[in-house]
């Protein structure tokens, strides 16, 4: 009898305690299942978007026609002269554009994840803090001054070099006493973006009419300049950046405990920092070199996926790559089809969604008091 | 090249000799000597601003002293790599906030990072035990950013225990804990020491230091004002002088344990010397 009373008493105490502490957004023991479902959903959506993107346009194609064309390329289906026009539209225009979109999205998703992990702050993103603009200065200079030392790789390499300088600058300017405050980070981003945009303006001023038009449109962010050459020049950057990111994943988890704590657990924080900065620059330049500045992808995607699959970088990095690829692919379909015979800038869509998300995130972080000086 | 290094006495796990550290001309530590023996709990006490956390930072290898040396098992701290150091000493800082919503279990598992991955089967056993020892099993699957301050501190301590290093440095581990968990944590420090560990704790609670420490180092203005057994260091005269407040050291009427009791007037008025 008394044991009964005690038991109800205990559970009566436990129940409200459970409700006082709301469960985390992703109930941890469900994370593994959630991860599998999330990855499956992302892959299916991405495949559907890719097929849809290949089908729509000024020369509409059916899924069967697309699959047949792929089959012909692979030698599985016998050649068909009547489909020459379809093959041309797919292989010269749509496929390079789709693949470049996937590369750009994946690169931005991973770069955002790395920056957020490195700063311990969900607001860090290559576009917001000026790394994209830094890359753009390098790419612009290469275009305007007609620099071609490295052939097709010149533009991405120039973007990388400037992106690297910018990332280092942001990192060291925005840190005080070993921590990065949100306010400092955002203000540093404003300063870096201002300087970079001034340099881009200088490039535009110096450029001839043709490159001027190229720069202006490209600054809005667009996959219009996609080609197999662009795919070939950016893919190695994505691979390299992804390998570096996955190599750093476990150490980034430890960094979330704090810099000193990570060092106590055996992480060489200085080396981790430099590897992460180089990877961010590599990935951002891959995204910027041909597609221009597409902001906020690196902000929204890792943040959203962290709520679903949890913060562990070993799963967050691949998930963000998929998520970024999906977002860019979707935005590109919209930009190509929303207005007939017009190719709207893709950066416009990501900024329309990303701006408000950024604002909400910042308000929440400021209210919770984390990171304010 | 110095003379042949004779291995330090096995009982001396961590030594600091003549350690000084200053920031912009302000001396935070001057000529501090401290010897931490394996199998003992050393408490660092002293008033605010005495340099306790700075000393712990020097012992942990976070702060490079401007003069003096720190040695682990007779070898200079600098000769260890970051990973080697992580297998020899664990550190709990006062600040234990985590940037992202990892689960408590994930955080505690991070304590195993410095050890070989092929021991992963044992890892979960070690993590389970570390959670149990700090009474954290109940919230092991919770998001660490949703915990109260005391729960966060216990999670951080579990992580430190899971690191399984022979030297354990704790900076005010009991600061945000209720009385029961304070005793749990201090008892845990004692059992780590009895298992052969060298434990250093920065403590504000003088009474806890008197009870749980084998050795007390009292810092005042960055210098060692007194060091030795609690009975020798924590006398009414020394404590009253160092803290600038009357402090009595009396014996518990029933157990005979030494109690450190601050002088207090009834209505909370401040007593002056």
Structural class of chain A: mainly alpha
Strand content of chain B: 25-35%
Taken from the alpha-carbon principal axes, the silhouette of chain A is globular
Spatial strand sequence of the major β-sheet of chain A:
1-2
How many E-type strands of chain A? 2
Fraction of residues in β-strands of chain A: under 5%
Q: What characteristic shape of chain B results from the CA principal axes? A: globular
- N- to C-terminal distance of chain A: 57 Å
Order of helices and strands of chain B: EEEHEEHEHHHEHEHEEHHEE
Average predicted confidence as pLDDT of chain A: 84
Describe this structure in words.
The complex is a heterodimer of chains A (373) and B (273). Helices cover 75% and strands 1% of the residues of chain A. Chain A is built from 14 helices and 2 strands, in the order H-H-H-H-H-H-E-E-H-H-H-H-H-H-H-H. Chain A has helices at residues 2-20, 31-55, 63-73, 84-119, 131-144, 154-173, 182-206, 209-219, 228-255, 259-264, 269-291, 297-309, 313-337, 346-367; strands at 175-176, 179-180. Chain A is globular. The model of chain A is unreliable at 1-26 (pLDDT under 50). Chain B has helices at residues 52-60, 82-88, 104-110, 120-133, 149-163, 179-194, 206-212, 230-233, 236-243; strands spanning 12-23, 26-37, 40-45, 67-72, 75-76, 89-92, 167-171, 198-202, 215-220, 223-228, 247-251, 258-262. In chain B, the strands form 3 sheets. Chain B has a 6-stranded mixed beta sheet, with helices on both faces. Chain B has a 4-stranded antiparallel beta sheet with strand order 2-1-4-5, covered by helices on one side. Chain B has a two-stranded antiparallel sheet with strand order 11-12. In chain B, a hairpin with a 6-residue loop joins strand 11 and strand 12. In chain B, helix 4 (120-133) packs across helix 5. Chain B is globular and about 55 Å long. The N and C termini of chain B lie far apart (54 Å). The interface between A and B is medium-sized, with 31 and 36 residues.
